[in-house]
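Lecture notes, structural biology module. Today: joint structure prediction for complexes of two components.
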Amino acid sequence: MRLSFLILLILVVLPAFGHAAQEAAYPFPDSYKATVYGTPPDMAYVIEKPVKPVVEAIRIKNRKVPNVFSYSSEMFYTTALQKDDAPLIFIIAGTGAEHNSAKMKFLTQAFYQAGFHVAALSSPTHMNFLVSVSQHASPGYVPHDVNDLYRVMLWIKEDIEKERTVTDYYVTGYSLGAMHTAFLAHLDEERGDFNFRKALMINPPVSLYHSVCRLDSWLTKENLGDQSVRDEIDHFVDLFSDYYKNSEVTDLDDNFLYDLITHIDLEDKDLRALIAVDFRVSTSAMIFASDVCLQAGYLVPLSAYPLSSTTPLMPYAEASFEISFKSYMDEYLLPYLQYLDPGLDRWTMIKQCSLYEISDYLKKTDKVVLVGNVNDPILDEHDLAFIGKVFGDRATLFPSGGHCGNIMYGPFVEKMLELVSP
Amino acid sequence: MMHRFSTRCLSIFKVGVLLAVLFIVAACGVATTTRIDPALSLENTGFQAPVSHAPDPDKPETMRDIEFMKVYDPWEPMNRSFYDFNAGFDSYVFLPVTTAYETVLPDPVRKGVSNFVQNANEVPTIVNCFLQGKMKKGAVTFSRFFINSTFGIFGFMDLASNNKSLKLQKEDMGQTLGAWGVGNGPYFVMPILGPSNVRDTVGFGGDLLLVLLQMKYAYKILGVENTRTVAISELLIRAINKRSNEPFRYHGTGSPYEYEMVRFIYTKRRELDIER
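The predicted structure, tokenised, for the full assembly:
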């Protein structure tokens, strides 16, 4: 009796195992772990024949790029073009990320392999974009950032069309780049330059302001309790140092970083702080670059100019690291926008940087599709409800993956590609 | 006399051709298009932020979130100039030459060159291991050197690394000095070679001397005649090979604080390398 029960059990369970072996589930159900760890290298979507992407540059004539950023006076972007006619997809990076960051490199390869010409752009919040092509040099205000992107994309379109036939236009982006994607699709409806076939949002925030406030809060008492930010950061430095000291590595490559981050013992509180520190590193660079371009006296006192390539910058690194994104928006961005347009109020600014601004469009268009995760830590239940209500079945949400943690995970990538398949 | 003159002319000619090739390669780097849009001129708008977060030198140390990043760097303005120079040299000379090297030589050949240099460098590592009393590391490195020099055909193949207990070790004279208790001294950016400090620069000099002695000895055994030309070529190939294997790109962090980041990572890593 028992034996037959066992056999029955095995028969019932076996097919399930067989299926699981085919498509191993994403291994980190915890949202913060997923966000920090990413996808294990052996579970990543396979790029069969990597293409060698080309770095290109755009220079604006007579632009007054500050001397201290002379190395960043051209806007760099990546292209990977098919030999024959093909659709072109623009990829917009997330907050602070460059056109050839690890995620961008991966997306470039994945979309190229799927048959697209690819043009990969840095986020408007990345220093290079800000310094070299941004009109108002104060990122974070989505309408301005999207105008900047749109202008640059038109130039790239013009250049690529000289070399190849482009059959259709697509746009995609992850994180903040996903929000830009939706707004680009909306702007294109008005202007009609690209006539995007599809716009794919990967892990978007619903409201930039709300999402950055969550990230900011992870470096406050709310998350850290009595521990100071400095102690928490020193704790990370010690953990990383110990791991390095006791390992046998000689190269600090991606594999080492993956091993390091998955082997040291981090609580959720630490993981949250680490995500926030990473974000702060990006935004501190952005704030410094913006303040220097505008000479607005927010971080660098006017008496300190001119800055040159020999000026020590550590004092500014320290001071800018301590500025939250929320402070940047309230103390710098909003006053600047009001300086340009006295009629603008805070509430309007925040709304213009959220998907609520274009929700009517997003509800009715079938162009804009979304892929994300239910446990994305930059979203709360209101955001998820918004996504469900506005996108309906045009949104695919995976149960786990955190914020962009599963962006290289096989089934996630297959879904992305399926959503933009012509 | 005449003969010597003509060889000199020939070598000047060769250098000229090399430079011409370099500039052509350099020009092929990144294709730039220029766009005209007066709205993007970044003219001063006159806007002043109502709040200031200017650095406060009196802020207590315990309140400074990224205090860990500080490194003793009294020569910072000079170092930054060298950093800038190095970035320029890298993008106009070093990387174009490296790209040409990677284009001309197929992968397996470059791997062979890389293995050969790595094998030759085991010798200074062995010396430094023993100077620090790290007998086990020294023995591992000696075994690697022996296996790769013989079965690996003068080091062109790295067979030893197939054995997990014979992993590549790295010990240099800077680490030896550190192990003997010599402090970092001021941070120092070496022209062309990049981040260092006074101790590691002295150590680098020591390692270079070992390499030169080793080369001289090897040339003697092999009966190389024109030692000077061969030595210069070997050092150039070593430099190009090293750059080719180094993924670092100047201004690749996308941060205006790259100098500070590189300075910290270099210093911290050396500190840990000496400890382990």
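Point to remember: Residues 114 and 241 of chain B are 6 Å apart (CA to CA).
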